[in-house]
Amino acid sequence: MNSKHEMQNNNEHDGSILEVMNKKSAASKIQRHWRGYSNRSKNVLEPCNPSELDIDYKKLEECLRNDYLTQGRMEYYKNTSTKNLTLEDGFMEYILAKCIDGDRVGEGNCPVDVVKNDFGIDVLCVCLKGNKTNEKSIMQNFGECGKNLDSYFVNEKYQEALYLFKKEYYKKLFTAKTTKKLNRLYYCAFISTDINIYLSVFKINIEHILNMKYETITKTKKNIKFKGFINKKLGMSTLYKSKKRLEIRLSKNVIECFNTIKIL
Which of 86, 140, 70, 150 lies closest to 111, judged by CA? Predict the structure, then answer.
């Protein structure tokens, strides 16, 4: 009788272990799928596990709830047209630095916003409405790039126009790595809806910046869509002639990717 009961318990125990293993296996397959896609396409932004940054997520949630999403602010959000929990870049840089015991170094003077040990983080905040987020600047240049950009557009030399910004973007990140003595660079995107806040973490592969290529020009011939910056399933990137700026827009798919964690 006891042996039969023990056998039943063992079977139930083995079944629960098998279930956990299956879940871990499924998660591992998803990660391998995304990483495989990233490696094949050689994008600048490569999805990576959020655990790489050793963020205190409990502390991050507490900071958001207690220091940022105050009652007054929440009432304000409810009275906006989108009702999105809009996040401020500067404050999120400060909170993130606090939650990894790092230093906030950005404030417009450096292409990275937070530094800890040998890695730097570029922080951005976007709102998700529908299937896409609003656009966010990757880099802007009114100097040498901006002066030559118009003539390249007029002469329909779109790959050359993109090259101006590729070269400048690479130089900015390389300089940051050298001056701050960084070995790794990351992109942390805080994505908010009207009820939730997510964090997506990407590794920045500066060696792949030169892989960015012109894809198409818009009908107005004022904006260039280019590839090689981010997986097309996760977002899109554009060079704007008038704004002299590279911008990124994330897709809703990103919140289902293994590199994204739900904060609230």
Answer: 140
Q: Which residue has the tokens 């289902």?
A: 256
Spans in the chain with pLDDT lower than 50: 1-27, 29-30, 33-39
Specify the amino acid at residue 195. I
Residue of 237, 252, 263 whose CA lies nearest to 41: 237
The residue extents of the domains of the chain are 44-262
Pairing of strands 114-116, 103-104: antiparallel
Residue with tokens 């009788």: 1
β-pairing verdict for 184-192 and 197-204? antiparallel
- Kindly state the greatest CA–CA separation across the chain: 88
Distance CA 4, CA 6 (A): 5
Cα 27 to Cα 23: distance, rounded to the nearest angstrom: 6
Predicted confidence (pLDDT) per residue in 128-178, tens digit: 999 999 999 998 876 767 678 888 898 999 999 999 889 989 999 999 999
Which residue(s) pair with 235 in the sheet? 250
